[in-house]
Amino acid sequence: MYNSISSFFLHNYMNFYEHTLIARQDTSPSQIKSIKEKYTKIIEDNDGDIIKFESWGLMQLSYLIKKNKKGNYLHFKIKGNGKTIKELEKNEKIDKNLLRFMTVKMKKLDLDTDYFKKSEENIKNNK
């Protein structure tokens, strides 16, 4: 059934991942929604589950990427296997709307912290 032990783990062992996409700055909200739906479907079709999704919005990039100064950040917290991530990244490499993507394997997911949500205290301090 499986050629090796590594192929067994690639297809059966579920891990937690944090996956971040950066879409081009000129991407419309409807395109952002379709990007989210596209990659959600890819994850679910390849035995993965989305634990949490966050849209971090348009943020300044540290340096120009493909002539873009800003990017729309999308963040997925995923439970899946190696096959899920392999298929996800294969599709992202050919997507012209994306500037960058990154996947990090996690031991456990932090579902409580919203890193880019502005609290009222931060807003008052910045005024």
Give the SSE layout.
Blueprint: H1 5-12, E1 15-24, H2 29-45, E2 49-65, E3 68-80, H3 82-93, E4 98-106, H4 120-126
Helix pairs in contact: 2-3
Main traits of this protein?
4 helices, globular, 127 residues, 4 strands, alpha+beta, Alpha-Beta Plaits, 4-stranded antiparallel sheet
Polypeptide structure, described:
The structure is a single chain. This protein is of the alpha+beta class and 127 residues long. It has one domain (13-102): Ribosomal protein S6/Translation elongation factor EF1B (Alpha-Beta Plaits, 2-Layer Sandwich), CATH 3.30.70. Helix content is 35%, strand content 39%. It is built from four helices and four strands. It has a four-stranded antiparallel sheet, covered by helices on one side. A hairpin with a 2-residue loop joins strand 2 (49-65) and strand 3 (68-80).
